[in-house]
Amino acid sequence: MTYVIFLSLAPAATVELARPGVMDLVMEAMRGGRPPAVERLTALGVAADFAAVFVERLQYLATLREAGILRGAGPFAELEDGMYLCNVPEARDARRIMEEDPFYRAGLIEPGFTVRPWLAAL
Predict the structure, then answer these.
(1) DSSP assignment, residue 36?
(2) Are strands 70-75 and 114-118 parallel, antiparallel or unpaired?
(3) Which of 6, 18, 41, 63 could lock onto 46 through a cystine, CB 3.0 to 4.6 A?
(4) Average pLDDT of span 47-71
């Protein structure tokens, strides 16, 4: 079954992600299969503590993708909300994915996320 997780980023995360060049760097690096280096993020003005958690989170998501669990993940354009598409047997498995996300554990994702089953027609 595919589940969609809808989430809201904490304002502190939105501020850091909105820095010029950050999302471009992240998308380029993740297309290559690995997160950008912390140093590359801090060179764009991202706080070092945020960059470290962000890189940990991106590695977590990449591992889920490699395992065939995560079909896609990312923020919406305004960088306040985002979503994950997860291939898991039950909603509780999708909830666990979010609860183990380093961003969520660090308080950079608001606790009120939503998990919904998705019936992909195509």
Answers:
(1) P
(2) unpaired
(3) 41
(4) 97
- What the block records as the tokens of 76 is 């919406």
What's the confidence (pLDDT) of residue 6? 98
Residue 77 C-beta-side C-alpha neighbours within 13 Å: 0
Distance CA 120, CA 85 (A): 11
104: nearest Cα among 67, 53, 64, 34:
53
* Strand partners for 54: none
CA distances from 118 to 4, 51, 73, 88 (A): 6, 32, 15, 11
HSE, side-chain direction, 13 A CA sphere, residue 115: 18
**pLDDT tens digit sequence for 15-32:** 999 999 999 999 999 999
Domain borders along the chain are 2-118
Neighbours of 34 (CB within 10 A): 12
Residue of 33 and 14 predicted with greater confidence: 14
CATH architecture observed for domain 2-118? 2-Layer Sandwich (3.30)
